[in-house]
Design goal:
7-stranded antiparallel β-sheet, 6 helices
Length: 382
């Protein structure tokens, strides 16, 4: 899973997304261990063990053993999931892997027969809530609209008509197919609370690559993934670490509120040699490990990406909310706003961000949601 924690809120109503912990780091021997039944101590075969937010994972063998290769990030979260048992997750540092292996003890879930209800057909209210859920989780992006839920029957909803707030949970891992990017995404322990223009959701993401029909289909996926990466928040954060903000097509400015489009105070990383307002320190400091940097700033960052226009789907979304007239940014660039809830967060060279609800994304980046999501181990250009 990417242990993802996401927010989306109105910026003038843009949306903001926050992505939570999920990490990994290169280790020659990989990660190995065993999964046991917590009550009997017996090994559990066929358990799905994976690194959150990546395509790295394996099923346990007949003795409950697993072995997963690791590569890339400074920390990671390992998840063990099996129907009939509670999901268990462990967060590890790359420098502190247990030499004896990782042990999971899963607790069985007891379901009373009285709690089982057989429904021949979902009621109309459930179907309407599924439409609301789809719009909130996947948004109205081109990629998002092409995604499909493979097992929507696991979803449970409650909807408050007074506040128009939707609550959603899942009785089992929710499976989603993204045919544009070529991934199957499984969300373990899904939770979602939101309404139009404001969303908070969490879950542990597992990515699996779909099987392409031919080499042409694989190349198309590669192009679509690169397109999803370019101009993304992850691309921007990676350019900060690499010192290539302007070269990558970004510009960023300090502002007081989301929706403000002033270019008075550029960040130092743009290397313009001047700031008109109060002089601000660099955005990045040394991180807790050699593989991470600390992103620290106050207020909001107004971020522009000049190599892509804002598509008509986004403008239609703003029109639907009555917001476009409130946004004065150029439509020939993608405009987003960032703020830090806790004042700082850790990022790595790939642009992955580590923190529970640490970084809010407004505007264009808030509109882009699960349909644009790439695995943490995705390599641009691959």
């Amino acid at each position: 899973m990417m242990s993802i924690r996401a927010w989306t809120g109105c910026l003038l109503a843009s949306l903001f997304l926050i992505i939570g912990p999920a990490w990994l780091h290169a280790q020659p021997a990989g990660l190995f261990g065993q999964v046991l039944d917590a009550e009997t101590g017996a090994p559990l075969p066929g358990v799905n063990v994976f690194v959150a937010g990546t395509m790295l994972g394996a099923a346990t063998d007949q003795d409950g053993h697993f072995d997963i290769p690791l590569s890339g990030q400074p920390q990671f979260e390992v998840v063990a999931s099996m129907l009939g048992y509670k999901v268990e997750a462990k967060t590890l540092r790359s420098t502190e892997l247990p030499p004896e292996g990782l042990i999971f003890r899963l607790h069985p879930i007891t379901v009373a027969l009285d709690d089982i209800e057989v429904v021949a057909e979902r009621p109309r209210a459930w179907k309407r809530n599924l439409e609301r859920f789809t719009a909130l989780l996947l948004s109205t992006t081109i990629n998002g609209k092409k995604c499909t839920f493979l097992n929507p029957e696991v979803l449970d909803f409650s909807f408050d008509k007074a506040t128009e707030i939707l609550n959603a949970t899942a009785s089992a891992p929710l499976e989603i197919e993204n045919p544009t990017l070529g991934y199957r995404i499984t969300i373990h322990e899904l939770s979602l609370v939101g309404r139009v223009g404001q969303l908070r959701w969490g879950g542990m993401l597992q990515f699996e690559e779909l099987t392409p029909k031919n080499a042409r289909a694989r190349k198309k996926w590669q192009r679509n993934r690169q397109r999803a990466y370019e101009g993304s928040d992850r691309h921007f954060l990676a350019s900060l670490v690499a010192g290539t903000v302007a070269d990558e097509g970004f510009s960023a400015y300090y502002v007081g509120n989301p929706g403000e489009v002033s270019t008075r105070n550029p960040i130092l990383e743009m290397d313009l040699g001047w700031q008109r307002g109060e002089e601000m320190p660099p955005l990045l400091e040394d991180g807790y490990t050699d593989d991470t940097r600390t992103l620290r700033f106050s207020g909001f960052l107004y971020v522009l990406y000049v190599y892509e226009d804002e598509p008509k789907e986004y403008l239609e979304y703003l029109d639907k909310l009555g917001l476009r007239q409130n946004l004065f940014a150029s439509r020939s660039t993608q405009s987003s706003w960032l703020t830090l809830l806790m004042g700082f967060t850790l990022i790595d060279a790939k642009g992955n961000e580590y923190g529970n609800y640490a970084l809010k994304r407004y505007g264009y980046w808030g509109w882009e949601r699960l349909g644009e999501q790439l695995p943490y181990d995705y390599q641009p250009g691959s």
